[in-house]
Design goal:
Arc Repressor Mutant, subunit A; globular; 10 helices; 7 strands; 2 domains; single chain; 5-stranded mixed sheet; alpha+beta; Nonspecific Lipid-transfer Protein, Chain A
């Protein structure tokens, strides 16, 4: 791990998390919780296996990541954020909010994973009817679907499918994010290819 050699808190922080891929490893562990090595590899398309292993070792040495030897039936090593690592959540949220401006266009070779919806959901969605019944929105924009669950004033995101989603949005993640961000109406996104099925009132509840 290289150092900037500066007695400055920003420089000291970047000494630890400023290397390429490091903050994205933190992102994966924030969104998904404990991860196997293969989970991390899948959530970081493009990273070389030896580089991922090196970054994990550096994060362990810095006290941001810990490993757990999970018993059967998992019987594998799981990586978790420590309390210090989890303190980076507001940092990643601030970077994510700032970076939304660069998502108007999607690169031809840009990869996407369903669980990456977690941060945009936190940025843009709110439960406007906290006394209303629980509802779920299934997002199908990648090989692994994701579900937004709305209940009691909170909005959360998880990987997987919903047993009986109240609303399903299927299509390009760029279209879904445009609706969440208010850059496009549901009708406009549908005209561009977004498939919407279920109760459209659910969107009104979370978008306001």
């Amino acid at each position: 791990m290289r150092s900037y050699g500066e007695y400055c808190s920003i420089a000291k922080a970047l000494d630890v998390v400023g290397d390429r891929w490091t903050l994205l490893i933190i992102r994966e562990l924030l969104v998904r919780g404990g991860c196997r090595y293969t989970d991390l590899k899948d959530g970081l398309p493009g990273i070389a296996s030896n580089l991922l292993a090196a970054r994990i070792r550096e994060l362990e040495a810095a006290g941001l990541v810990r490993r757990e030897e999970a018993p059967p039936p998992v019987a594998t090593t799981l990586f978790h954020l420590t309390d210090s690592g989890a303190e980076l959540r507001p940092v990643l949220e601030a970077i994510g909010r700032w970076g939304v401006r660069y998502m108007a266009e999607r690169g031809e070779h840009d990869e996407f994973r369903g669980h990456w919806f977690a941060f945009p959901a936190r940025f843009f969605l709110r439960d406007r009817e906290p006394d209303g019944p629980p509802v779920s929105i299934e997002l199908r924009a990648a090989s692994s679907p994701a579900v937004i669950e709305v209940s009691g004033g909170t909005v959360s995101t998880r990987l997987g499918a919903a047993a009986a989603p109240d609303l399903v949005l299927s299509g390009d993640p760029q279209l879904i994010l445009a609706v969440f961000a208010g850059a496009s109406s549901a009708a406009e996104a549908a005209g561009l290819g977004l498939q919407i099925s279920g109760n459209p009132g659910v969107l009104e509840r979370v978008l306001g």
